[in-house]
Amino acid sequence: MLDLIGVASNVDLIIFYIINSNLQNSYFNFLMPLITNAGLYLFWLGVCAILAIFGGEKGRNVALLLLIAIVMGYILSEALKYIFMRPRPYQVLTSVHQLAALNSPSFPSGHATQVFIACVILGRKYGYILLFLLLAIVVSFSRVYLGVHYPSDVIAGALLGIGISIIVIHFEDNILKLKNRLVHR
């Protein structure tokens, strides 16, 4: 079992260095710090506000589901960070091409959690799931490129985000019935 963990850790480091060092170029150095912002929970709270204001009844319902999932994702990813306390790659590795700095622990990626939550729910409700998932993958890739996460951090964040989305979508009818009861009192 320890051999398997060691192999997984080595693969994680190899992929990290391929993305973080070998793929470095001026185009990505400009683009990735911009793209990574689509993983911020505040970005998605803004999307919720836009949907609620301009999206009609469907937009308000999607915004509510998204808001619930975003809050769950934020709480769970932050709790897991402080349970695992994994240092950021640039804090422990040499030769990291670092384009961002954070003080919080690394595992799991909160950006990957949030962007996968949003992209799965929006893709499910509005279509274009492949485009949304492509966005989620690119944002997650940016976290490794910037030197703030290992590939396993973003994979764990993606799985957490997908899991939370599935749970919220599963309970969608109950959530919307409760919303309607509260609104029509």
TrEMBL record:
SMART domains the record matches: acidPPc (SM00014)
Domain Phosphatidic acid phosphatase type 2/haloperoxidase: 62-169
Record Gene3D superfamilies: Phosphatidic acid phosphatase type 2/haloperoxidase (1.20.144.10)
Transmembrane spans: 30-55, 62-84, 129-148, 154-171
Keyword Coiled coil on entry: no
The entry's keywords: Membrane, Transmembrane, Transmembrane helix
InterPro entries noted in UniProt: PAP2/HPO, PAP2/HPO_sf
Molecular-function GO term, any one: sphingosine-1-phosphate phosphatase activity
PANTHER family the UniProt entry points to: AT30094P, SPHINGOSINE-1-PHOSPHATE PHOSPHOHYDROLASE
Protein name: Phosphatase PAP2 family protein
Species this chain originates from: Methanobacterium spitsbergense
